[in-house]
UniProtKB/TrEMBL annotation:
The lineage of its organism: Bacteria, Pseudomonadati, Pseudomonadota, Alphaproteobacteria, Sphingomonadales. Pfam families: MoCF_biosynth (PF00994), MoeA_C (PF03454), MoeA_N (PF03453). One of its GO terms (cellular component) is cytosol. It comes from the Bacteria. This is Molybdopterin molybdenumtransferase. Catalyzes the insertion of molybdate into adenylated molybdopterin with the concomitant release of AMP. Pathway: Cofactor biosynthesis; molybdopterin biosynthesis. CDD domains: MoeA. It comes from Erythrobacter dokdonensis DSW-74. It catalyses: adenylyl-molybdopterin + molybdate = Mo-molybdopterin + AMP + H(+). Its EC number is 2.10.1.1. Its cofactor is Mg(2+).
Length: 399
């Protein structure tokens, strides 16, 4: 039997398969902030600032120690019409053009004014309080790299650089299929041999903030004909996320159903806990490559693998240049045991830089998962951790 893949290797292989969804120019407006990403590098169409500007309210002064005679005013949008001669100054406001012949800005707090004459209680150094032309960016500079997220700041930068629209990667179409004979649709009566189908709702809720609509295909019984019908409905999806049935037991039919559908298994099983029976497959559609991500059926395993694999895959398909979750360091608020051969992700609660377990670490314990706001990352073979020792943590802000 082949060795289990490490988390990093499995993520690398998965992200390399991210489907291409196309690009489109989108007019810049506030609603595109969030989960849209640039399809290509963008260059500045203009220089910012286009001229030397004042960074403070005060007086633009000619070189020298003064006094200076005030000969006019420069306001934002209404520059002084001439050039300064030695011994002259103009009243200037923040963001206004520095007139030719001026050297620095004497801020109003350091200016002593007597009629039209201005003297300095504290002389500014040459160039002081001046925003030089092009200090932010110049025409032709690369201002935003491919894969940059649309944020309020990046939108402002694009507009300042002269752009009215952005080349954005189109969101992928996503379907979620949860399967199992024991599953009952939400709200339906359950026998003692049945459970409510919570995974489809959970996965859809995790993916919805990224792409909006997510097509729900389940719950589906462990039946080859039912699975084939559900997969038929997923033929237009860029990414299909399944939950349950990805193993190779007598009643685990997803792998065979996918093969019957024309999919090829890319890899299977990752050395993590929970989430070992993760499966990745691909299928060639008329419009390109589909990616199928098979998650375990236990709800906590499904959540953790969705966090580590499904969300990064969707971000990568959307053009995100850094799709993987980022860890931070916190202090353990309680002892943690040594780790075995598989990397563990413990459901936990953080508070003031400290972190403690949220409750039961069983892969079916939804109560502890709902209480958790983070995952503690415990590498394989890690020794026991004492109170106060550092641990790596992933915040669970839906990915």
């Amino acid at each position: 039997m082949s060795a289990l893949l490490t988390l990093e290797e499995a993520q690398r292989r998965l992200l390399a398969l991210a489907p291409e969804t196309g690009t489109a120019p989108v007019d810049i407006h506030p609603r595109i902030t969030g989960n849209r990403y640039l399809a290509r590098d963008m260059v500045a169409l203009r220089t910012q600032p286009a001229a030397d500007l004042s960074a403070m309210d005060g007086y633009a002064i000619a070189p020298g120690r003064g006094p200076w005679r005030r000969v006019g005013e420069s306001r934002a949008g209404a520059p002084f019409g001439g050039a300064l001669e030695p011994g002259q100054c103009v009243r200037i406001s923040t963001g206004a053009h520095m007139p030719p012949g001026s050297e620095s800005v004497l801020i109003q707090e350091n200016a002593q004014v007597d009629g039209d004459m201005v003297t300095a209680s504290e002389l500014p150094a040459p160039g002081r309080h001046v925003r030089k032309a092009g200090f932010d960016f110049r025409q032709g500079d690369c201002i935003l790299a491919r894969g940059t997220a649309c944020t309020p700041a990046t939108l402002a930068l694009a507009v300042a650089a002269g752009h009215a629209n952005l080349p954005l990667v189109e969101p992928p179409r996503i379907a979620v299929l949860d399967s199992g004979d024991e599953l009952v649709p939400p709200g339906q009566p359950c026998g003692t041999h049945q459970i409510p189908a919570s995974n489809g709702v959970m996965l859809g809720a995790m993916l919805h903030p990224l792409v909006g609509a997510v097509e729900a295909l389940g719950p589906v019984a462990d039946d080859r004909a039912a699975l084939a019908a559900a997969l038929k409905r997923a033929e237009d999806s860029h990414i299909l996320v399944t939950s349950g049935g990805a193993s190779v037991g007598d009643h685990d039919l997803i792998q065979q159903a996918l093969k019957d559908w024309g999919a090829t298994i890319a890899f299977w099983k990752v050395a993590i806990k929970p989430g070992k029976p993760l499966m990745v497959a691909t299928r060639e559609a008329s419009w390109g490559r589909q990616v199928i991500l098979g998650l375990p059926g236990n709800p906590v395993s499904s959540f953790v693998t969705a966090f580590l694999f499904a969300l990064p895959l969707v971000r990568a398909a959307m053009g995100d240049a850094s799709p993987l979750p980022r860890a931070v360091t916190m202090r353990a608020a309680e002892p943690l045991p040594a780790v075995g051969k598989r990397r563990e992700f413990l459901r936990a609660v953080s508070n003031g830089g400290e972190v403690r377990l949220a409750g039961s670490q069983d892969s079916s314990a939804l109560g502890a998962l709902a209480a958790a706001d983070c995952l503690i990352d415990r590498p394989a073979g890690s020794p026991a951790v004492s109170i106060g020792e550092p641990v790596c943590v992933f915040a669970l802000g839906n990915g």
